[in-house]
Amino acid sequence: MTATLPPLTYGSFTTDEATQVKLYEDLLRPRLIEEKMLKQLRQGIISKWFSGIGQEAISVGCAAALNDDEYMFTMHRNLGVFTTRNVPLERLFAQWQGKPGGFTQGRDRSFHFGSQEHKIVGMISHLGPQMSLAAGVALRHKLMKEPKVSLAFTGDGGTSQGEFHEALNTAAVWKLPVLFVVENNGWGLSTPVSEQYACENLADRGVGYGMRSLVIDGNNVLEVYETVRQLAEEMRTNPEPVLLECRTFRVRGHEEASGVKYVPKDQIEAWTARDPLSNFATHLKEKGLLTGAKEKALTKKIKAEIDAGLKAAAAMPDTEGDVARELGDIYAPSTSTAPAAAPAPPATRNPQPAPGNPQPATDRRMIDAISDGLREGMRAHPDLVLMGQDIADYGGVFKITDGFMDEFGADRVRNTPLCESAIIGIGQGLSIAGGKAMVEMQFGDFVTCGFNQIVNNLAKLHYRWQQSADVTVRLPVGGGVGAGPYHSQTMEAWFTSVPGLKIVYPSNPADAKGLLLAALADPNPVLYFEHKALYRSLSGEVPAGNYHTEIGKAAVTRPGSTLSIITYGMGVHWALKAVEATGIDAEILDLRSLAPLDYDAISATVKKTNRALILHEASLTGGFGGELAAWVGEYCFEDLDAPVRRLAALDTPVPFAAALEADYMPEGRLVGAMEELVAY
Ligand SMILES: Cc1ncc(C[n+]2csc(CCOP(=O)(O)OP(=O)(O)O)c2C)c(N)n1
User: Fold this and answer.
1) Could you tell me if residue 304 is left (phi over 0), alpha (psi between -120 and 50 degrees) or otherwise beta?
2) Which alpha helices (DSSP H) does 43-118 contain, by range?
3) Residue 587: beta bridge partners?
4) Any idea what DSSP says for residue 401?
5) Number of C-beta neighbours around residue 112 at 10 A
6) Separation of alpha carbons 295 and 23, rounded Å
7) Contacts of 529 (CB under 8 A, 6+ apart)
């Protein structure tokens, strides 16, 4: 970014005159709105403003070039997209004022919202995740054979994020019709591009991804418009991603409060001279397409629109608190016509049938039940797409999707590059465009690499702007398999504190199938925990066909009267063994779902036995048992004859050697804990 910059020239472009005049009006509108908002900011009517002044040609040119039914994924400086797509101004103003008449009912600020009506998906604060969502929408278009593109904006700063790499790489490998538009405006907050990247052009990275890429002048609205129009046309008939770097400049501060002290003055001056609006106005005047009088009239018309919008927003009611409404909007309502839930038959350990006593035909191992559930789900939901590493021909590392390619084909059973975050985001993109996704973590431990998409995008979307996140994430978890710290964890507690997620953790084959089918039918994000050590060590009767085990309902695995063992997953089997070994008449409550949680069932069992032992495989501190114990202590105190007891794994990573892992696991301490609690 130097101070000597070429002037803006429009002579070589062929856009017709009427469109040019329309583009001018589309540029003028966001400029005038921004100028008004800067005043409103000073007056305290709005609380924050990220200026896109000087960058409008990119938003406007892109929005004008695409069809209105093509999704655009916007960032914090893309007001011109909203105005060019005719989003009603009063709704924008209400949004910025935190009023229910906006797009988020006061739940999120500034441009952090989307509108299905306008096919605009706004950012989350974390910037990069947008790019994977746009790739997911493009995947949906490709699968549906719709000749459409999606477009995602990012800043130069955003290109340094891992998500940029994951999204572009996957889009390139899958040839998805998504246009990645980098608004290279010289600065990322106070960081100059010289400290952001070392290549000459960000578009140069396209070569590395095997992707078309180009650099254009982002201040020239005709250049943006014609380039994007041409690219989109080509991408609709020949789906592939393109990386488009638009050179521009941020002439105001990152946000209004932060100022521009750190930006060399000559840079601001040089780029102000290249202002996309005034230069284009001069060009139109030279061509006789605009006069001073017409300019004035347009300004007056838009200012009147703004005033009317502000008046309408001012007349809208303020946001009122309503706790029940807020809690009620965490999840999307389920619209599924669920088959009746089948009762879960008791699971039996050990898959080997006794000699002379063959297994019933309906007996399935845990792993088969999960595979059956997934297959039934694929049959029930033609829109469902499976994604994961090595899940296609290879059948997944645990072979759960073995043979799926033959039945459902490569479009719906997708091997992915090694990129958890992009794939979860692509799943969300499918959902935004009307599809459905199941994403397999090869091992649950690797979900750390997709954490942001789950906790910030999937979990919060419905609450923020009523967008469902129809994504199920399967996580093979658990220890006892000698796999050490990175292939043995059970990380449900990383997610149980995040509102908006549903979390299920089956302990037996019948529930495994029924909960998976319920998860796949649910429009909300569901984390499905499956214990690897149970895959082949446990079998049980599994109903045929498609049935749902209700999410949010616990089950009494074994009725008893002396104490309650409240547990889930592998804990259920440890408890069954301990009851057999001790003869203690314990009631075993299998939670099955951790979110939502079946408080009625917990309360009922404590009322019945008056003693509560909470058991789980994950480490004690910060484990989900802490939450359960707190709730029992708070709400069941009068029913308790003994203190609530928690039993969990040691507060260490999961060790590899068998002797160490045995010490780590709580199983060896269970009988003692039960006896102590009974004796209290
Ligand atoms: C993951 C993450 N890290 C840091 C931030 C704080 N932050 C917000 S915007 C921004 C700069 C973004 O720069 P760029 O992508 O170039 O976009 P620009 O603001 O220039 O339009 C930073 C550091 C953030 N929002 N998210």
Assistant:
1) alpha
2) 56-65, 79-84, 89-96
3) 564
4) T
5) 19
6) 13
7) 444, 475, 477, 490, 492, 503, 504, 505, 506, 569
Q: Is the pLDDT of residue 339 over 70?
A: no
The best mutation among 76, 153, 163, 189 to test binding of ligand 1, ranked by most ligand atoms within 8 Å of the C-beta, falls on: 189
Q: Tell me if 78 sits within 8 A of 30, measured CB to CB.
A: no
- In this predicted model, what pLDDT tens digit does every residue of 270-309 receive, in sequence order? 999 999 999 999 999 999 999 999 999 999 999 999 999 9
Q: HSE, CB side, 13 Å, CA atoms: give it for residue 588.
A: 23
Q: Are 199 and 245 in contact (CB under 8 A)?
A: no
Q: How far apart are CA 163 and CA 453, in angstroms?
A: 10
Residue of 108, 190, 246, 254 to test ligand 1 pocket, by largest number of atoms within 8 Å of CB: 254
Q: Would you say the CB of residue 77 lies under 6 angstroms from ligand 1?
A: yes
3-state secondary structure of 257: helix
Give the mean pLDDT of 522-535.
Answer: 98
Nearest CA to ligand 1 atom 26: 126
Token duo for residue 446: 């690797």
Q: Which pLDDT does position 2 carry in this prediction?
A: 52
Q: What is the pLDDT of residues 309-319, one digit of tens each?
A: 999 999 999 99
Residues 530/371, Cβ–Cβ less than 8 Å: no
Q: What share of the chain is helix, strand, coil (3-state, %, to 5)?
A: 45, 15, 40
Beta bridge partners of 150: 178
The mean pLDDT value of the chain amounts to 95
Between CA 607 and CA 615 the distance in angstroms is 18
Q: What is the SS3 assignment for 3?
A: coil
DSSP code, position 127: S
What is residue 346's three-state secondary structure?
coil
- In the numeric block, the tokens 């909203």 are attached to 82
Residue closest via CA to ligand 1's atom 3 equals 126
Token readout for 48 is: 């924050």
Q: Return the structure tokens found at 401.
A: 């999707």
Tokens of 260: 């521009």
Interval between CA 333 and ligand 1 midpoint (Å): 34
The label of the residue with tokens 């005033």 reads: 307
Q: Is the CB of 126 under 6 A from ligand 1?
A: yes
Contacts of 165 (CB under 8 A, 6+ apart): none
Can you read off the two tokens belonging to residue 108?
């999120």
Structure tokens at 503: 């979390």
The three-state secondary structure class of 141 is: helix
Q: What is the 3-state secondary structure (H, E, C) of 464-513?
A: HHCCCCCEEEEEEECCCCCCCCCCCCCCHHHCCCCCCCEEECCCCHHHHH
Question: What tens digit of pLDDT does each residue of 459-509 get?
Answer: 999 999 999 999 999 999 999 999 999 999 999 999 999 999 999 999 999
Instruction: Specify whether the CB–CB gap between 118 and 63 falls below 8 A.
Output: no
> What is the secondary structure of 582-646 as a DSSP string?
H---EEEEE--EEES--HHHHHHHHHHHS-EEEEEEEESTTSHHHHHHHHHHHHSGGG-SS--EE
Cβ neighbours of residue 495 closer than 8 Å, sequence gap 6 or more? 454, 455, 501, 503, 527, 595
- Tell me the one-letter amino acid at 146: E
Q: CB–CB of 449/421 below 8 Å?
A: yes
Q: Could you tell me which residues come within 8 angstroms of residue 58 by beta carbon, excluding any fewer than 6 positions away?
A: 78, 80, 153, 181, 183, 218, 224, 246, 248
Q: From the CA of 396, how far away is ligand 1's center (Å)?
A: 37
Could you tell me which residues come within 8 angstroms of residue 296 by beta carbon, excluding any fewer than 6 positions away? none
The one-letter code for the residue type at 671 is: V
